[in-house]
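I wish you would study the pair of lines that follows with an eye to the fold:

===
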Amino acid sequence: MSTLNFSNTPVSTVVRDLRKIDAPTNNIYESLAIVSKRANQIAAQMKEDLHNKLQEFSNDSDTLEEIFENREQIEISSYYERLPKPTNIAMEEFLNDKIYFRNPAKDSHK
């Protein structure tokens, strides 16, 4: 998760000014498509990170240590549940010009 920055990202729902979302592309639908694609990338990365961390706990034998491992698994899962949603992270990146995007259709008409 080191590549994602959550410092200024709200955890809950945020009311957005549509003019700010529209400004970079002059098309609200294009802006939302960009944010959506980035949110999908972030969600996939978060899922992979969580899966890798939980994979460390996979154990086929039943032992007394299993209770302790389950607690650690729960703590890791809880941490990921408390993180901002991928759409909020993507929107913050978009509004702060941290997403590179281009539209090949627009570029070819120039």
Remarks:
- The radius of gyration is 19 Å.
- The helical segments are 18-22, 28-55, 66-82, 86-95, 104-108.
- The CA atoms of residues 68 and 98 lie 40 Å apart.
- Residues 49-56+63-101 form one domain.
